[in-house]
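Work Package 3 (structural annotation) set out to generate three-dimensional models for the target panel prioritized at the project kickoff. During this period the team completed the workflow that converts sequence records into discrete structure tokens, so that structures can be stored uniformly alongside our sequence database. As a representative example, we reproduce one entry of 260 residues exactly as it appears in the project archive.
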Amino acid sequence: MSISFQLCRIIGPMIGAVIIAIFSAKICLWINAFSFFISVLILWSLKLPEPKLSKRDLEDLNLRASIKSTFSVLTQQKRLRLFLVFSLLALIILMICESQMVILLKSLYPSRPNLLGYVIGTSGVGAILMGLILGKIKNLKNYFPLLALSLISMALGYGLVGLIPMNASLIYLLLISLIQGFGFGGILVLYSYVIKREVPEKILGRVYGTLGMFQSIMLLIGSALGGFLVSGMGASHTYFLMGCVALVLTLGVFIKRRCL
């Protein structure tokens, strides 16, 4: 699913950039609206059978039981707890930067409104490559070095893009976007892998749902912080700061890992 999502991040922005370059942004928005309308019609036409929920499924839907199971697992497993803390903090950094990408590109390349599609597409390529690399590793036991590698990629990507001068060569921007994608993909793939590996199968649904709720909260916090920081510091300074924060998180991973 993560790789499929990243493929959509590549294909969609690339097509959008081409449409904007040939026609206009208005045409691109109309096509986007039409695609949503078609999706609604497809979903509306589907006739799914009534799900027969077992007692275990009903328990998984109970929010209180899910939260209780999640904290029970986190209390018992220090490695999982530590990994989730760093991963959720990394998600905040990701959302701060990703939500403000339009503002950054507008300040660096005011005459290139179609550049966003290429940047997102290149980042998606990096995420897919990282996902494929991690997918080749079987029986991964020590995932903290890979977490540190993903954080270093984020630190380099966001830190360097914050140092790009106005109207710099697009090659530098795309290379940096590729590095960002490595970090983005590594965090997402590792997040799913570690939860499935460390959480007992009988309560995996509950824990996954609760952590998904926390993940959504982190994404909302990141979006809000992104707007606040860009308004106060500017886009480039915000990106450079987030690169430094990601580097500090990387050092924290190495320090805490030795304590386990």
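The first helix runs from residue 2 to 22.
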